[in-house]
Specification:
171 residues; alpha+beta; Alpha-Beta Plaits; five-stranded antiparallel beta sheet; 6 helices; 5 strands; 16% strand
């Protein structure tokens, strides 16, 4: 590969990584063509972009990005694929479910919500909630006491009004 081609690939990697909030590094080497096609199909269905990259070019792309990806440099060994997603736990769930039958892909590392997770933290990544899910949980928790107070006020106000109407009707 000529230097110009490498620069173009690095620029393409930078722009592609910049489009997604979460980056997973995985090893998919050893999958046959049917398994690879199935993995790619599952990635597409779950909104995950799967790319096989050269480690040196990926490292250069990481170095030129604003975020600090230096923790992943040690995992850039052997075959590396990147899984890009805007949902933090989607690639982790896919890796876990797909590797049950195929023993691959294997997580090498991940950058989720500006934090680095190592290869041994797949279960933690699967159980992560997205930012929107957390906000929805907080809103639901905050609304619950307010709903109880409002329904209590409505019930007691309704009883009070009924009582006053009954008193007025008797007069």
């Amino acid at each position: 590969m000529k230097k110009e081609e490498k620069v173009a690939v690095i620029d393409q990697l930078k722009s592609t990584i910049g489009e997604y909030a979460h980056v997973y590094l995985a090893d998919i080497a050893g999958l046959d063509s049917v398994q690879t096609s199935n993995l790619r199909r599952e990635c597409f269905n779950n909104g995950i972009k799967l790319m096989v990259v050269k480690n040196t070019l990926l490292k250069k792309a990481f170095e030129s990005l604003d975020a600090d990806y230096s923790q992943a440099y040690d995992s850039l060994v052997g075959s590396t694929s990147i899984m890009l997603s805007n949902t933090g736990n989607a690639p982790a769930k896919l890796i876990k479910s797909f590797s049950k039958d195929n023993k691959k892909p294997v997580l090498k590392g991940a950058f989720v919500e500006q934090s680095y997770y190592g290869a041994d933290q797949l279960d933690a990544l699967v159980s992560l909630k997205s930012k929107n899910e957390l906000i929805a949980d907080i809103v639901a928790l905050l609304q619950s006491p307010a709903k109880n107070v409002i329904s209590g006020l409505k019930a007691s106000a309704g009883d009070k009004i009924l009582g006053e109407l009954e008193t007025l009707s008797k007069r």
